[in-house]
Amino acid sequence: MDRRRLSRQELIRARRGDEFVGREGELAAFRANLARDPADPEFRFLHHLHGQGGVGKTSLVQRFEQMARELGALTVYADESVHGVPEAMAEISARLGRQGHPLKSFDKLLATYRERRQEAEAALAGPDEPGGEAPPSPGSMLIARAGVTGIGLIPGVGPFAGAVDTTQLARGTDRLRGRIGARLRNHDEVQLVLSPVEVLTPVFVRELGDAADAVPVLALFFDTYEATGPLLDTWLRDILFSDRYGPLAPNVMVVLAGRDELDRRCWADHLEHVTDVPVDAFTEAEARQYLAAKDITDPDTVDAILRLSGGLPVLVSTLAGSRPGAAEAVGDPSDTAVERFLKWETDPVRREAALAAALPCDVDEDVYREVVDAEAADHFGWLCGLPFVSERGGRWRYHEVVRTAMLRLQRRRSPRAWAERHDRLAEAARRWQAECAGGRDAGACRQDARWRALRLGEIYHGLCADPREILPEALSEVTAVAQYEPPAVRLAAETVRKAGEDADAPEVRDWGARLLAALDGPDGLAQALTVVLARPGLDVPEQALIHRLRGREHRKAESWPQALADFDRCLEMAPDDARAWVGRGLTYRYMRDFEPAVRDFTRALELDPRSVSAAFHLGEANRLMGRYEEALTSFDRTLDLDPRHAPAHGSRAVCMRHLGRCEEALVVLEHAIELHPDYAWAMAERGMTYRAMGRYEEALAEFDRALAVNPAYAWAAGARGRGALLAGRLAEAVSDFGRVVDLGTPSPWLFARRAKAQQLRGAEAEALADYDRALAEADRTAVPEVLRAVFLAARAGCLRRAGWLDAAREAVEAASALAPDELPVRYESALLATAASGVRASAPAWEALRDAQIGLPDGDLLTGPAVVPIVSCCALADWAGAQTSLAGLLGDGTPWERMAEVEFGLRDLAALWPDRDATTTGRLEAVRRVLLHRMAEAAPTSL
Q1: pLDDT tens digits for 907-928?
Q2: Please, which residues bridge with residue 390 across strands?
Q3: CATH number for region 541-659
């Protein structure tokens, strides 16, 4: 296609633009602005046209677009058919592509988004599948045992627009990410689905700039902005005025046209950059100019049109449409508005067709032929040329002022004809649904946008024909949509409201308004389901379904008691509903109450032996309880039902690793990656498996593999940092932990681990800063006092090594007040006592430590289970005990980190024991040399 070739719709708009008259001041200002260099401070890049319906905003904005094209600009026109930011970007990209400027990278990413969004919505519409979860670190296990949840290394996400409201996301981001992640290929795709605007927009802005480089101006026109503004305001503001999505080309211009003023809550800081273009009714001079251009010059006729139209451009255009030759042809002022619109259409067939075609909200030729009489079937082209009919996204729509008047006339004139025509349209929609379904089940159909539009058309026309009879079906449709396609519930509610308005059916209109108000509230879909549940005459099966769906929504919001109550009520009404058993089981699982979860998943499988969800989640519950053999049985069953279920392969491998079957686990994980080549989670799990085998270099390579696929995979970055620390690659460990912080997922233990890496590389000041951040994060996340005590003790060690003994003692005293029996607290107290009074005076403390039962997890602090007994034995001159402990430490596969911890502790002790004799010095150095030798073998570059 030639890059400047126009579509039929664009040609129609251009032809209408050629007939445009009036608005000379606005046109002159716009033309002058286009002539400026975009680098000129006077260049206006944001225009806002606003005024009441019918004043000609659409005509003016389309004339602006035509003028921009004539002057060499690349233009895009969009209206209310774009119902979200991704859709707006898609429409802009499609229109630019038709003009020879495709946004190729964006289009590719958009196609991936649409595919993955469908998969994610399927995951959210049915039982949730969190997929394999990475095994928690020892630190997070300690937190979990203390009853603290929510500690993780996964970055926050933006709203899952159209599927889950922002309140739900704020309450359960990590779990939502996990559930969606089970259905997707990798972390990038999870982020794409959860935050499409954040991921798509930078690519869109970059390629938009490439297109803008080829032309003087790239102009984006957004018509009917009163409808799309609430969806697009923040996005457009950020593109135009911030660097959030990258730099915008300076020659990109935006024109907004709508009824309302711009929302000051969004635009207040930028109003000085907005060119405000109020559009009012025609002045008398403009109206006369317009009529003269239409060859209507008879003074009485002109006066009659001015009197009847009130200067409203849509009425002036309509009344002038058939070029009345005399004032008498204009009609009496008492004529109805509809009669004015059709005054000079003398063909009764066409007059009736124009009225009938107003009944659907929008019309194409198929719909037109269904609603009009047979004699008018071939007049669709005529209809499209009427001045109050405009094309929107391949369909045609009446101006709302005109349509509202025509609907009112038809309701009053013949209620029977009104009902018959709407019945005819509803029946046509049913036929077309059957054709569109193609034998698919209800769930698949409701995920098809074309089928959904036809179904809502059937509901709309049914309500208009017989509101009382169809209202129960319409409200049941809201429930059905909530089950299969939650994002479309708003469209269903809006359909009910609009049918109530158009049919003048107050009960229907009120139900639609109540549903929309509920959807806009803090509990969103859950509250909308509560509204539907309150309707009289609801049968028991639908009540049970609503309770199950509302339980699902409460679970997503982590409102556990409400979720359980709804699932319980559902199961009272429908005890054989396997999905309800799975739903309640998932609620228990996310509450970490695994035994009832296992019972519910088991019951679901008894009712539905082919339930993939029940089998998988039964395995997950058993895995999380450490019942790895039972979990393997469930995962095997899952894979019998669905051999390509990648999360089941992954979780099965995790169980194998815990059972010591690491080689098998590696094979299974590689198979999962073969199924989904970008499965970053499985790559990271291979890293965890290699790490468990002591094969640290291979572990790091796997973490690198995962991060190459998904650079924003914070959990993999943290796991890599942990592996680098074990392998003695301290600079890499510090960098990896810093990467996690940069991704916005800090935790107290993360800072503690980075502090440990800093200490081992001799950066005590940086370590002290990280312990301070660990304590601050502990305060923010309200961790248990025992953890604060551990961090305070570690911080005291940094202060002691810096020579600030008083500050160190204050930190230890604060730690002792919180948890006096914790090993790190006692260890640091003994070191400080040695610093103050010498080894002999502190001997009782060292004896107690030597004989203590060591239970602290490995790896989080320098005070590990190997350090305390060896350092304690050396402090007590118990060299035999030290040698025994050292021999136990230096077995095959001992990680560099463990040996480094002990060597660090011995240096600590030596620094506090300046008066030791030569024998003691020699013994200490002998132990250190053994450690240093083995450390050099394990990681030659670390020292």
Answers
A1: 999 988 877 788 888 899 999 9
A2: 397
A3: 1.25.40.10
CATH 3.40.50.300 fits 8-101+214-278, yes or no: yes
Phi (first) and psi of residue 358, to 5 degrees: -80, -15
- Stated as kind and residue range, the H or E segment containing 75 is strand 74-78
Q: Residue 162 in contact with residue 114, Cβ under 8 Å?
A: no
DSSP β-bridge partners for residue 389:
398
Cα 199 to Cα 110: distance, rounded to the nearest angstrom: 10
What angle is formed at CA 485 by the lines to CA 361 and CA 363, rounded to 5 degrees? 15
Q: Which regions of 379-509 does DSSP assign to beta strands (E)? A: 389-392, 395-398
What does each C-alpha distance from 237 to 194, 249, 497, 797 come to in angstroms?
Answer: 21, 15, 31, 50
Place of tokens 């979200």: 84
Query: How many CB atoms lie under 10 A from the CB of residue 149?
Result: 14
Q: Is 135 exposed, middle or buried (0-12, 13-18, 19+ CB in 10 A)?
A: middle
Q: Which helix (H) or strand (E) holds 256?
A: strand 252-258
DSSP label of 219: E
| Region of poorest pLDDT, from 185-199, 292-306, 529-543, 902-916 | 185-199
Q: What's the confidence (pLDDT) of residue 345?
A: 76
Residue 842 to residues 306, 832, 849, 872, Cα–Cα distance (Å): 104, 9, 11, 11
Of 193, 208, 242, 146, which is closest to residue 787 (Cα–Cα)? 146
**pLDDT, tens digit, 9 for 90 and up, residues 742-751:** 888 888 989 9
Q: Left if phi > 0, otherwise alpha if psi is -120 to 50, otherwise beta: which for 53?
A: beta
pLDDT given for residue 14 in this prediction: 52
Buried b (16+ CB within 10 A) or exposed e, 877-893: bbbebbbebbeebbeee
pLDDT tens per residue across span 8-62: 455 555 554 444 555 788 889 999 999 999 999 899 999 999 876 667 788 888 8
